From TrEMBL:
Matching PROSITE patterns: WD_REPEATS_2, WD_REPEATS_REGION
Name listed for the protein in its UniProt record: Uncharacterized protein
Alphabetized UniProt keyword annotations: Repeat, WD repeat
Keyword Repeat listed: yes
InterPro entries to which the protein is assigned, alphabetical: F-box-like_dom_sf (IPR036047), F-box_dom (IPR001810), WD40/YVTN_repeat-like_dom_sf (IPR015943), WD40_PAC1 (IPR020472), WD40_repeat_dom_sf (IPR036322), WD40_rpt (IPR001680)
SUPFAM superfamilies assigned: F-box domain, WD40 repeat-like
Top-level taxon: Eukaryota
Originating species: Daucus carota subsp. sativus
């Protein structure tokens, strides 16, 4: 039997050698490693590996300097929760001064802050801005207000050239000047024309599979139009793949189904919904595979897998796209909703109303028993039109409220209150006109009579935690954070 001896196994290596090898892995790799066997699970939980992760992300701190923990891994996960939930009073902060115009769109796209004011699109690279290396890049090709902005993967367009561009995105914008423009590297690469009126909305994702993917637009003319992202052909209307008719009112919202990438849901101003299978045919009559309507004015529209979540009037309705039948709805929220977000991974819905928002567990909805919200997110002034929700937090705000509120997504407990216009402090009366959140970063846009202000905050390197009753807004102290087994550092 000696001749049949097997070769050396990974578990035959010493723990110190394995720890050295594991130091080259990322968090997801370590998570996968912990699921293989007991021996490698103990490796994945070792303080040496997690101390390395901790120092890489927070080089100015040591786990022992935060509090007494049973392991470095728990210290890492706890601090990650704290920075993701903005539980600090000393984030890195910086301002961008702009024209005194409302912010119509505001996004954080990796290293870029992208926002529009009227017809102008502004792009600021965060790292360059913080180092004062370059001015704000302004794109002025549109001649009327920008109505919608979307980011699509560069590798799904003909602009893609090499693997080094795999994570880059192109910006697509629609405008009241009847046009759509595709931007990359600070230049307009293509202008799409075809709508007979203002273009009001764009699909949240690309439609189709492979190299034939398209994006959709909706306009005041009541049509849905499908456009190719292949830029190798002729310019102009040759990019137009199909025009879909059926809506009698202007289009306001669009979303692509999660279970089938060729399905597009569109919603018009009269709250009528149409489901289109864009792979079926170029004929608009055969493309429409479902219709329904929701009472009340349109507020929001989002797809997840085969479910469609529609916010209109005073409630959110979930519809099964396979049958176009109602699955459940939230209780009525008088007088009306102004915003909503969903977090399907935790079965959560957040709805913004007048002076407050509500957090719901969609698993508790019933047609026979009145459902109570998981949490009441109150203390706002005016309609809560701005909502962001991820696995760590809910961020809520109002155009009439000078403060943005931050809450734990699991419990609805408040973690912080942030001024939209930091120069005004606690006595500011300037409300926000736009909010964007990405992980531990938040950007607020506010406008005074004299100037517009983009305020950027990054909580990743913050050290001073919010204390009980620290400010007049009543930020609350929280107890010890439960440490999840998840190693994700982003939402």
């Amino acid at each position: 039997m000696a001749g049949m001896a097997s070769g050396t196994k990974i578990t035959d290596m010493g723990m110190d050698s394995l720890i050295h090898c594991a130091s080259f892995l990322n968090l997801q790799d370590i998570s996968n490693l912990s699921l293989t066997c007991k021996y490698l699970n103990s490796l994945a939980y070792s303080d040496s590996i997690w101390r390395s992760f901790f120092r890489q992300r927070w080089p100015q701190q040591e786990p022992s300097s935060i509090s007494e923990r049973s392991s470095v891994r728990e210290a890492y996960i706890t601090r990650n929760f704290d920075v993701q939930q903005f539980k600090f009073v000393d984030p890195f902060a910086a301002d961008i001064l702009t024209d005194a115009k409302p912010f119509d769109n505001l996004f954080i796209n990796k290293n870029d802050i992208v926002f529009s004011q009227g017809p102008a699109i502004n792009i600021m690279k965060i790292d360059s801005f913080l180092k004062r290396r370059e001015p704000l890049l302004t794109l002025r090709d549109h001649s009327a207000r920008v109505s919608c902005m979307r980011f699509y993967s560069l590798d799904e367009t003909s602009l893609f050239r090499s693997e080094t561009q795999r994570n880059e995105k192109v910006l697509v914008t629609s405008s009241y000047d009847h046009s759509i423009r595709l931007w990359w590297k600070g230049n307009c690469q293509r202008c799409f024309r075809g709508h007979s009126g203002p273009v009001t909305t764009l699909s949240d994702k690309l439609l189709g599979e492979g190299s034939g993917k398209v994006f959709a637009s909706g306009g005041d003319d009541g049509t849905v139009r499908l456009w190719s992202l292949n830029l190798n052909g002729k310019r102009g209307q040759h990019a137009l793949r199909a025009t879909l008719y059926g809506h009698g009112k202007p289009l306001v919202l669009m979303s692509v189904a999660g279970h089938k990438s060729s399905l597009l849901v569109s919603m018009s101003k009269d709250s009528k919904l149409r489901l289109w299978d864009t792979a079926t045919s170029s004929s608009s009559s055969s493309c429409c595979v479902g219709m329904t309507s929701i009472p009340g004015a349109p507020v929001g529209l989002k797809c997840h897998e085969s479910l469609l979540f529609v916010a209109a009037g005073s409630s959110v309705v979930a519809i099964d796209l396979r049958t176009m039948k109602k699955v459940f709805s939230t209780p009525y929220y008088p007088p009306s909703l102004f915003s909503f977000e969903i977090l399907p991974s935790k079965s959560l819905i957040c709805t913004g109303g007048m002076n407050s928002a509500m957090l719901w567990d969609m698993r508790t909805f019933s047609e026979t028993v009145k459902t109570k919200p998981l949490g009441l997110l109150d203390g706002h002034i005016g309609p809560v039109k701005f909502l962001h929700m991820d696995r760590y937090k809910v961020v809520s705000g109002s155009p009439e409220d000078p403060f943005v509120n931050v809450w734990e997504s699991d419990t609805g407990r408040q973690t912080n209150i942030l001024a939209c216009n930091p120069t005004g402090g606690l006595h500011s009366t300037t409300g926000g006109s736009a909010i964007a959140v990405n992980g531990c970063e938040i950007v607020t846009g506010s406008c005074t009579e004299g100037q517009g202000i983009i305020h950027y905050r990054n909580f990743n390197y913050a050290t001073s935690q919010v204390l009980a009753e620290e400010n007049e807004g009543g930020s609350k102290f929280w107890g010890p954070q439960h440490c999840s087994d998840s190693y994700e550092s982003d939402s």
